[in-house]
Amino acid sequence: MTNRKGAPRVVIVGLLSVFLFFTLFPMYFMLITSFKTNFQLSINYFGLPTDPQFGFMQDAFSKVWIYMKNTIFISGLSVIGVLIVSSLTAYVFARFRFPLKQTLFALLLAFLMIPGILMLVPQFVLVTNMGLINRPWAAILPYIAGGQLVVIFVFRTFFEEIPKELIESIRMDGGNELVIFFRLVLPLAIPIVLSMGLVNILSTWNDFIWPLLVLSDQSQTTLTVGLYRFMDPQQKIYGSIFSGMTIASIPLMALFAFTMKYFVQGMTSGAVKA
Amino acid sequence: MTKKVHYVYIYACLFPSFILIGLFMLYPALEAFRMSFLDWNMTNYLHPESVGFDNYIEVFKDAIFRNSFLILLVFMIWHIIILQGASLLGAYFIYLLGNTRLAGFYKVAFTIPMVLPGMVTTMFWLFFYEPNNGMLNTVLSMIGLEHWQHIWLGDNQVTAMGSLMMKGFPWISGLGFLIYLAGFQNIDESLREAATVDGASPWKIFWAIDLKMVAPQIRLTTILVLIGGTQQFSDQLIMTKGGPGYDTMVPGLYMYNNAFTYGKLGVGAAIGVILFVLTMALTYLNLRSTRERG
User: Fold this and answer.
1) CB contact A197 to B (< 8 Å)
2) Chain A touched by B199 (CB under 8 Å)
3) What pLDDT shows up at residue A274?
4) B265–A125 CB contact, under 8 Å
5) What SS3 string covers A147-160?
6) Can you give the residue ranges of every domain in chain A?
7) pTM for the complete prediction?
8) CATH 1.10.3720.10 fits A63-273, yes or no
């Protein structure tokens, strides 16, 4: 335990608490407003609801459910795809020498740096010509293509750090490449696989522009686009809007509540490697 | 012979990755350059015409486009100095608490909003600035400052830009925060102890030791902001549509409007190429300055 002398501890804790209050306040407000009618909101803006209205949650859930289902499907398949494709590629890059290795890896690196905005318009034309508009694959395939880059990079570094002696000892016992991969490498990689998977889920779950373009159909679109359309400009029923926002937040909250440590690791390792 | 079989397996493993990269990254990237020289819109969708540099000339002649870079510059400077500064400060305070339970609590608590869907956060801020029932105007009227009320996102450039810039206050929660915190927590304690023994003030230690030690992290987040920032336009699209007028128009949104609202695909591709060149130039300058400093 270290005690760093600096500004008085009280001041630091005080400031952090004020910052934290403002950081978390939107979540508190979202939750309480989910249970208020417009009138209740106008007379009791910041307080807990005195007569909580649970109907908004029900109403919002029936509207949001379809978007949530689409998003779970798209994010789920994307992350599974990214993890499978990247672990294969990263393992091959980490373990073997083969012709064109440097060229192919340079291609990966190049696309890590090339901004996605360059490709936005042509990707849209491509997906349109492939007849994928308003089908989940219009999002899933590009998500795997783009999402794998940083994951391959992080996995490759991880695989290279596995001691050669461990691999050799399995080979001595007669294990082939498949045994090495599934019995040794994959179990060791579980934490990093989990980390990168969580970060990937967050990014596809949050994406807005791409689904807005390629999944515009009401029945096919994702949570972000669905919520965006939720803001009915004519007559705003705040209880309903905030209920929708609350419900949309629950799946990730639930997922990350148990995996926060891996998520934090994934965020930092992905960024440092990029 | 066995070697050849070996390579077949290797390329088979690489195949899924590279077929996806080829189709969804490499091909569109090359297409972007080709498309940027075409007059291609909804009326001649099947028969685009080659027009040389006309698309580039058209956008650079447009004052709205030129101005959008100034607006972007303001957002980026704000982002790099204020937003990154806030997360640096937050991370530093937590670091100063040492290896305590309290520090661990703050770290987790500041991380929680990161897992809210981005759209939920944006919708909260949209509500915050809403003219009639929005939180900002409501608070102003509660404390008797009705005359300070505005249609924040629509009155004029100052209120609209200001509102977008204040979104996310106090800006601690985010990737930068996690990166800085990891950086601070890797600092060698003996350095600080030696400085304390020598009688250095906390202020001096911050500038001379702690800040220097996280310089690589600061450079990293700056690159990330530069690359991400030139492409970012969803806040503008959702909250102001680039308005009032074109007062919050950034290049990315200008591209989006041209390509997907007006259907000018060639012009959109040209703007994409311009933004690509700009991003690459910024990345290159950043890498070069890093190398010079050692």
Assistant:
1) no
2) no
3) 40
4) yes
5) HHHHHHHHHHHHHH
6) 63-273
7) 0.92
8) yes
